């Protein structure tokens, strides 16, 4: 039986009727057409599905949509300004921190959460915070450069 939920997505109040088994990732991708977050491992390991839930990075593959009721969700589509990209998005392009891009949304949102918590993290702090995000293309060096550049570290 479906349940009605209401949540804020990228600053906009949204409502939906969801099956109890539907994940938050399925909700944003299939019902809200926000497809930046990707399904990778489906077991909370790779970080490709990361969204910010009340400002905290979460694996949306492993969060039930019903549990997102009343929460504030940020997807990569809500990160940029109307006429400009977020500095992390700019830096990822500038430093070539992506190849296929499958992991990129997760990396950028996780890095945003880190920088919101700690404006000038050390390299070690960045590495530890991003430990749950995998890049199968192996762009780790460029990703670190991009984040360090935004952090001014
Ligand atoms: S798809 Fe969710 S963590 Fe890998
Ligand atoms: S850019 Fe391809 S998985 Fe990271």
Query: What form results from the Cα inertia axes?
Result: globular
Secondary structure: helix percent: 25-40%
Low-confidence stretches: none
Rounded Rg: 15 Å
Beta-strand percent range: 15-25%
Biggest sheet: strands side by side, in what order?
2-1-5-3-4
Structural class: alpha+beta
Query: Biggest sheet: strands, sense, closure?
Result: 5 strands, mixed
- Secondary structure tally, helices: 5
Q: What is the terminal separation in angstroms?
A: 50 Å
Which cofactors or ions or other ligands sit in this model? FE2/S2 (inorganic) cluster
Mean pLDDT value: 97
- The count of β-strands is 5
- Reading the helices and strands in chain order gives EEHEEEHHHH
List keywords for this structure.
5 helices; alpha+beta; single chain; binds FE2/S2 (inorganic) cluster; 153 residues
What do these coordinates show?
With 153 residues, the chain is of the alpha+beta class. Helices cover 32% and strands 16% of the residues. The chain has five helices and five strands. It has a five-stranded mixed sheet, with helices on both faces. A hairpin with a 2-residue loop joins strand 3 and strand 4. The radius of gyration is 15 Å and the shape is globular. The site of one FE2/S2 (inorganic) cluster has 11 residues, from loops.
